[in-house]
Automatic annotation (TrEMBL):
Organism lineage: unclassified sequences, metagenomes, ecological metagenomes
GO BP terms: phosphatidic acid biosynthetic process
Segments traversing the membrane: none
The keyword Lipid metabolism belongs to this UniProt entry's keyword annotation: yes
The protein's name in its UniProt record: Phospholipid/glycerol acyltransferase domain-containing protein
SUPFAM superfamilies from the UniProt entry: Glycerol-3-phosphate (1)-acyltransferase
Pfam family, one: Acyltransferase
KW Chloroplast (keyword) present: no
GO molecular function, one term: 1-acylglycerol-3-phosphate O-acyltransferase activity
Length: 173
């Protein structure tokens, strides 16, 4: 549901989006692998990363973006929230954005957890709002003498800050 809300709010066509998805959950489960990848542009990501799995993920993202006018949805927390609160962010979005030299567009969604919490079966009718922040351009944030790990950390920190600002802005804080 979160992906559909993001895609709809963006105004872009659903087929213009790829979604980074856990390989073990979406591609190694018989029921899911025979249905969901056919309905959505899923990009498999191994949960255990090493040089090979990262290289495969980068190649798959690059291939999806190749035709142009496309975007990739990456959930920076790595999973859906158990309580509706933002969890610490993973560095995956920063790594992909840096390596592919693409911007990160921060987004905050309100109402998706109330409508369909993690492990929920059917969505409840709830109003869902999606708010987008200004893009973060990795090459503008990075400094020439920084290590790649520091760049990923700074991008991840900036992304968390901007998502939190969207939350505060739309909750009167």
């Amino acid at each position: 549901m979160d992906s559909a809300a993001l895609m709809y709010a963006s105004g872009m066509g659903f087929n213009q989006f790829g979604m980074v998805a856990a390989k073990d959950y979406f591609f190694e489960n018989e029921k899911r692998k025979n249905s969901l990848p056919l309905l959505m542009n899923l990009i498999p990501a191994d949960r255990k990363s090493n040089r090979q799995t990262i290289a495969r993920l980068m190649a798959a993202c690059r291939e999806f973006l190749q035709p142009g006018d496309r975007a990739i949805i990456i959930y920076p927390e790595g999973t859906r929230s158990l309580n509706g609160e933002m969890a610490p962010l993973k560095k995956g979005p920063a790594m992909i954005a840096s390596e592919l030299n693409i911007p990160i567009v921060p987004a905050y969604m309100h109402g998706t957890f109330a409508s369909l919490p993690k492990f929920g079966k059917f969505p409840k009718p709830r109003r869902i709002n999606v708010y987008f922040g200004e893009p973060i351009h990795p090459q503008r944030l990075a400094k020439r003498d920084e290590t790649i790990r520091l760049i990923y950390t700074e991008l991840t920190t900036e992304l968390a800050k901007r998502i939190r600002a969207l939350y505060d802005q739309h909750h009167g804080r």
